[in-house]
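Researcher: Here's the sequence for the chain we discussed earlier.
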Amino acid sequence: MKNITALIADDEEALRAHLRKKLSLLWPELVIVDEARDGETARKIITNARPDVAFLDIRMPGLSGIEVARKSAGMCLFVFVTAYDSYAVEAFENEAIDYLLKPVSDERLAKTVQRLQERLASRSSFPDISEALERVPRPFK
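Model: Thanks. This is the structure I predict for it:
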């Protein structure tokens, strides 16, 4: 089974470090592939590294977390971690798996981890049949 990977994007180093530490305790198998201080960097990391999950702050320099999710739709699962409750509806309209308000409690983060694990498990329960489809003979024209 492949490692589950994540990106943490927040303009405050202390908050990135706190989330990284809490995630390592709650989900030791999770691999943080990178961190970003701004939205544009987060978008580039998602495009290039293709993490399974992106933990995004809403208000960051450059692109907001919402804009990052919009521009990266379908590339990974999104969890918004923010101090602003007023963006929740917009976040869920952009495929958010969860919306966490800072400061995030351990209990609340544990529920998010469980939700992510369940979603990722259901996603991986469907086999990748693309290679098999490549071998299927094409009809003559």
